[in-house]
Design goal:
Largest sheet: 2 strands, antiparallel
Shape: elongated
Number of helices: 20
Strand order of the largest sheet: 1-2
Number of domains: 3
Structural class: mainly alpha
Radius of gyration: 29 Å
Low-confidence stretches: 438-446
């Protein structure tokens, strides 16, 4: 039953109804984005990542707060750390959130004052491992195969750990100075502006969450993320954070079974549940940002891309044709993303085929993903391009070569016919071919 429902929704969002002109088609095309995110959540891959991050959060929350406490203490802003931790646990409930925030900050302050150099090194190692798992989750959502190098990871993570609390402390200090300034006090005395100031103060936590999400979406994945998709995903994530937080608070406050079953550990269980929902919201926002920047993946989702042999041959020929034509005519070079958008394919399909052609010495993929023929296109045979596309292997296993004469003869005859048909046809012949008039047009002229 559920498979039929998802098939119907897929048909509505990507089938003929979504291609129609007018309001209905526009609405269906917009609904592709929330549909794709909900579909991926339903399939469970994002949920598993969120569950794993809950465990890493338990290991890293004390080191993170301890480092932040130690750095903010240098500037006298360590007292402002507890309200920030409280905002994170707010959906658990007022009393429980206050108790959790107070315990975490006190324990972190005790840790930062007791441990020595070796202890801080172990805490830093735990924190760096947690950030790496967060990066791995974001790279998974953004289809990034190559994470940061070890040296780059250490440098960027340490700068994030140090600069994050400093920026936070500076923001808090400037906010307090602005609110305590004389002009602001004069403004607050006006009734209308007083209401606006109160509304701004209530809105500040959500603005901070949105800004925090935007920074994570832009800088954590090991790829170039545009600011608009990151901001849109962060806005949606911030709204969901607020809405789900209010609903979770109501659930905790009015649920008596949680307290009866877990007794004194009820607030700990609630904190774990909220941490899971928080990571789920954060990852869902990241997935939405990815789809906004890469709409070609909307229908594919997190499934593994599998092209047929015919599709691989067509893609290899088209890819080499576009690269060769741009090289001959002096046109702007095609990139992987631009070519994927032109062909209406996910970028990973073009990237995989271009990598196979590069390994075969027919194509060069530059650092900015520009596609350039590796040699004179007059010496690149079409049959070689087809052979590379047909002989791609997964590399997971080596099949046993079993001789079956009738099958072998048939396959050899097919290969011979293919080679005879292609002959000495080169990529230059394809690029410089003069378009032939159709038979219908020729008949009309006669």
């Amino acid at each position: 039953m559920s498979a039929r429902i998802w098939a119907f929704l897929d048909w509505c969002c990507f089938g003929p109804p979504s291609t129609r002109a007018g309001t209905l088609g526009l609405v269906l095309r917009v609904l592709r984005y929330p549909y794709a995110v909900v579909r991926d959540l339903w399939r469970g891959a994002i949920n598993l990542r969120a569950m794993g991050l809950v465990y890493t959060t338990l290991l890293s929350i004390i080191p993170l707060v301890a480092f932040s406490f130690a750095i903010l203490k240098l500037f006298g802003a360590h007292r402002d750390l507890e309200p920030i931790v409280y905002e994170f646990f707010r959906p658990v409930g007022g009393a429980a959130a206050g108790e959790l925030a107070s315990r975490v900050v006190k324990f972190a302050a005790r840790v930062s004052g007791v441990v020595g150099t070796l202890g801080f090194a172990l805490l830093a190692w735990t924190l760096l491992g947690t950030i790496k798992k967060v990066e791995d989750s974001f790279n998974f959502l953004w289809r990034v195969d190559h994470p940061r190098s070890f040296g780059r990871r250490i440098a960027e993570y340490l700068s994030l750990i140090v600069m994050g609390p400093l920026l936070l402390g500076g923001f808090i200090g400037l906010s307090h100075a602005a609110l305590a300034s004389g002009p602001m006090q004069e403004v607050v005395r006006l009734p209308v502006l007083d209401r606006l100031a109160g509304f701004g103060i209530r809105l500040a936590p959500y603005a901070m969450v949105t800004a925090f999400f935007t920074g994570l979406y832009m800088f954590i994945p090991n790829t170039r993320v545009q600011w608009r998709p990151a901001l849109i995903g962060a806005l949606v994530g911030g709204v969901l954070w607020a809405a789900v937080g209010k609903m979770f608070t109501a659930f905790v406050v009015y649920s008596t079974r949680l307290t009866i079953v877990y007794a004194g550990f009820a607030f700990v269980v609630a904190a774990l549940l909220w941490t899971y929902f928080g990571w789920l919201i954060l990852l869902a926002g990241a997935q939405l940002s990815f789809y906004i920047q890469n709409p070609a993946y909307l229908r594919l989702g997190l499934q593994e891309l599998r092209l047929s042999s015919v599709e691989l041959e067509q893609l290899a020929l088209k890819l080499m044709y576009f690269a060769g034509r741009a090289h001959v005519n002096g046109e702007p070079r095609w990139t992987v993303d631009r070519l994927a958008a032109e062909l209406g394919l996910p970028g990973i399909a073009v990237a995989q085929v271009s990598a196979s052609l590069e390994r075969a010495g027919l194509l060069i993929v530059r650092q900015n993903d520009e596609l350039v023929p590796a040699r004179d296109i007059g010496r690149i045979r079409v049959c070689d391009i087809l052979e590379i596309a047909r002989n791609q292997r997964s590399g997971h296993f080596a099949p046993r070569n079993v001789a079956i004469p009738p099958v072998d003869r048939l396959l050899a005859a097919i290969d011979e016919a293919r080679r005879n048909r292609c002959g000495d046809l080169t990529l230059r012949d394809l690029v410089e071919e003069v378009p032939r008039p159709s038979l219908t047009l020729a008949a009309r002229r006669e």
